[in-house]
Amino acid sequence: MKPNTDHNEVLFERAKRLIPGGVNSPVRAFKAVGGTPRFVQRAQGAYFWDANGRRYIDYIGSWGPMILGHGHPAVVEAVQKAIAEGFSFGAPTEREVELAEAIIGLVPSIEMLRLVSSGTEAGMSAIRLARGATGRSKFIKFEGCYHGHADALLVKAGSGLATFGNPTSAGVPPEVVHDTLVLEYNNVAQLEEAFALHGHALACVIIEPIAGNMNFVRASVPFMKRCRELCSEHGALLVFDEVMTGCRVALGGAQSVYARDIPGFAPDMTVLGKVIGGGMPLAAFGGSRAVMEQLAPLGPVYQAGTLSGNPVATACGLATLREIGKPGFFEDLSRKTRALVDGLGAAARDTGVDFSADSEGGMFGFFLLDALPQNYTAVMKSDGAKFNRLFHGLLERGVYIAPALYEAGFVSAAHSAQDIAETVGAAREVFQILQNS
Ligand code: KE4
After folding, report:
1. What are 381-394's pLDDT values in tens digits?
2. What's the rounded Cα separation, in Å, for the pair 435 and 347?
3. 64, 422, 432, 387: which is closest to 245 by C-alpha?
4. 160-167 average pLDDT score
């Protein structure tokens, strides 16, 4: 190859001939930000190296799972040991029980759980279980929240509360989303009206408690309180989608954060993924015994999976949970993440860039807006072109953030103070360029 070949470009062209868009998940294609995706050659700690051998400080970390950083020795050792014992059996193993015990120990609202292989599978199964357990078909989700790509969840708001959802994807028949009601995040009045109209027919409300698929938008405490109260009043289940926030914003997930402000707060079901698998294909959904025992083979709600509870994935997840459960882990991670957003905020203020940011535990988000948005409409008021220039300016300086303004960011235990300082320094340079142009 020519000496200054860009191997990312060569790989991307090769990939696009064989894989739709050259990627196995759309957000990786850099469609929103433009340019050539970086093909990862290897990763270690807070960094990955692309096909050209260029190092990046990684703030995606596989979209959340790599909370310890890449290649943590204890996790590598656990996975290597598991592989030597066998890849997959399609039969129960002790490690699935150990992982269930570990998760239930961290999330008191879960009495029983089922392991699956992806967040989509967990979210889809949680909706089916809520419908089966309540005998009701309708459910509420919120605009800007993503719960995986199951048909009933690929939906945008209908016009008004009387009408239900419309598909956001081709291939989803309108009737499949007919029972999905899409409301505005943080809108208490609309939520109360929806329950007044449909409360008797609602199986559940599913919510991202801190919406990482809108970059980083917190459900307000009053809004979360009303979600809980209205679900209880009307016999609907409150389903927390903590695929992103679980064991990431706190050891007990976002529900443990809300329980600090709402005494006794707990959802009825929780969907988990990402961190609990440590980067391997593993997710889970759980809740009360009464609800979970509606699942096959005990109850009438069917759900299954060839690789569910995979012995290598459970080893990876267990080793990860062991490490993040160590004393001081989340305090250190939270401090580091807050230092990043504070540093970015100071750099933005010094350069006059409209900027707002927030973090909880090892998850953060920022907006090129002067105030934190409270819902999807507000998030999408961000200047996309400006974000794209920020994204590429950081990328050129070896800092890898999410290639889309509606995605959250993640710090790992492996990110050093030096990495954070380097990132803030790079942002300061790019903010300056944005302001001077
Ligand atoms: P997966 O099916 O991608 O494992 O999980 C779906 C899912 C469910 N719930 C929440 C809150 C999620 O954030 C996700 C997946 N998150 C995206 C990032 N926004 C994964 C990245 C991707 O789609 O490639």
Report:
1. 999 999 999 999 99
2. 12
3. 64
4. 76
Rounded-to-integer distance, Cα 311 and Cα 329, Å: 26
pLDDT single digits (tens) 169-197: 999 999 999 999 999 999 999 999 999 99
Confirm or reject: Cβ of 122 under 6 Å from ligand 1: no
pLDDT band for position 2 (cuts 50, 70, 90): low
Strand partners, 269: 239, 287
Indicate which residues carry an active-site annotation.
Answer: 146, 241, 274
| Long-range contact pairs involving 300-304 (C-beta distance under 8 Å, separation at least 24) | 300/132, 301/128, 301/129, 301/132, 301/133, 302/128, 303/114, 303/116, 303/125, 303/128, 303/129
Give the per-residue pLDDT at 162: 66
Nearest to 242 by CA among 117, 336, 138, 148: 148
List phi, psi (to 5°) of 270: -130, 135
Q: CB of 243 closer than 6 A to ligand 1? A: yes
Distance CA 433, CA 352 (A): 11
- Nearest CA owner, ligand 1 atom 21: 63
Contact 213, 144 (CB under 8 A): yes
Please, what is the end-to-end C-alpha distance for the chain in angstroms?
37
d(CA 215, ligand 1 centre) in Å: 12
Residue with CA closest to ligand 1 atom 5: 119
Check pLDDT > 90 for residue 215. Answer: yes
Other CB atoms within 10 A of residue 296 CB: 12
pLDDT at 1: 56
Lookup result for tokens 């009303």 = 226
- From the CA of 432, how far away is ligand 1's center (Å)? 33
What does pLDDT average to over the chain?
Answer: 96
